[in-house]
């Protein structure tokens, strides 16, 4: 993965911070320091440096008591460090398919891609319950570069959060691909899901609400 190669070649501390922020909608210096087990002042210096060269920006998170808290998050420039799944080549091929076989051909091709992907996931996902299957799927998706994890709380229920989408540019061009992906996950988990997207600055988090009943 390009990100990990760059981490080894450049400043590991910077990339550790970028990865923490990628898997969130933003973090304070204190939260980053606690998660990484580093000093507050060291993390603050790194964040200030990355903000100066355009990889981070800040916003103010309200608190119940006291002044709003300064939160760091990734910029669009930083998002470019995370890999996309051959989008330029895929987009070019889909355009050619559309020109040769008609305007509906690219969508049919994408539909068949997600059918095949569902079959591949089903062969690997194990679990008697929906939660077990969702956890296994999230682990596989994480390995595929989606930075996926499962969460549960009483208010939001059980969800799969994906902090990166290697196919985002393709889905922007072909919106039906997102629906096909949603259907794919339903087939693998054997339950209904609802897809939503949370946007914070340049960061997009895909949220899959999983029906566990």
Automatic annotation (TrEMBL):
InterPro entries per UniProt: WH-like_DNA-bd_sf (IPR036388), WH_DNA-bd_sf (IPR036390)
Source domain of life: Bacteria
Name of protein: Transcriptional regulator
Native species: Sulfuriroseicoccus oceanibius
